[in-house]
Specification:
Blueprint: E1 4-10, E2 25-26, E3 29-30, H1 31-40, E4 47-51, H2 55-64, H3 83-96, E5 101-107, H4 116-125, E6 131-137, E7 147-149, E8 155-157, E9 173-183, H5 184-193, E10 200-204, H6 216-229
Helix pairs in contact: 1-2, 3-5
Length: 235
């Protein structure tokens, strides 16, 4: 059996910042549906799987074409539950059912402004990389305007002495959370030892596609960006 690439989408029912945000109407569709449709339109993704503890999210996800093989166990559905064990739990379940999985594309449902083309580009960037992770150019830079508190109550620049030119220092990126492309073995390693136990290759996205919806202001800003940039529904 040839190992395949699957997409995972992790969506809890609880949200303190914006209750019910994963199924809140965004540009005419429940928020999570945008991510599901983006994944379904990718030629190189063989199946789209949602991990959730919420029956309402599960019903909407199935209606959009995703597969929801079970409701997530309570211990993996708390505010404190790390995400990597949730993905690993889903992948192991599918493998126990007979699936052969080579790569896992984890897609954050609160990043609706990515497009299917971004997912495909991340998949194609370095196919053998342990992890390809989406990033955006950081607004703040530790060499210029990020400072750290010192024991004496003062602050100092995080890196360097501030004497260099911005264009001469290393490029700095922010993880935008939108796309993670895992090799199967790397996911298992990271689930046990943490994200930075594997080698990460960056896939850069523009800032407007990198909005992560946490609260109502993010939600409204993302809708405005969607309208401004003309991104088609579902990518």
């Amino acid at each position: 059996m040839k190992a395949k690439t699957i997409a995972t989408i992790c969506a809890r029912g609880g949200s303190k910042g914006l209750p019910g945000k994963n199924i809140r109407a965004f540009a005419g569709r429940p928020l999570i549906v945008h991510t599901i449709l983006q994944a379904l339109r990718c030629e190189h993704i063989a199946g789209v799987y949602v991990s959730t503890d919420d029956p309402a999210i599960a019903d909407i996800a199935r209606g959009a074409g995703a597969q929801v093989p079970y409701l997530r166990p309570a211990e993996l559905a708390t505010d404190a539950a790390p995400k990597l064990p949730v993905i690993e739990h889903l992948v192991r379940y599918l493998e126990a059912e007979g699936a052969a999985i080579a790569r896992i594309v984890d897609l954050q449902p609160t990043s609706p402004l990515r497009r299917s083309a971004d997912i495909e580009a991340a998949l194609a960037l370095q196919p053998e990389a342990e992890l390809v992770v989406s990033v955006t150019a950081a607004h703040d830079n530790p060499y210029f305007n990020l400072v750290e508190a010192q024991p004496d109550g003062t602050v100092r620049l995080s890196k360097g002495d501030g004497s260099g030119r911005r264009q001469d220092v290393p490029a700095v990126y922010a993880l935008n959370g939108s796309i993670y492309v895992w090799q199967r073995a790397a996911l298992a390693k990271a689930a046990e030892h943490g994200l930075w136990s594997v080698q990460c290759v960056p896939y850069e996205m523009p800032r407007w596609k990198s909005v992560d919806i946490d609260g109502l202001e993010d939600f409204e800003y993302a809708e405005w960006l969607l309208a401004r940039h003309g991104a088609g529904r579902g990518g």
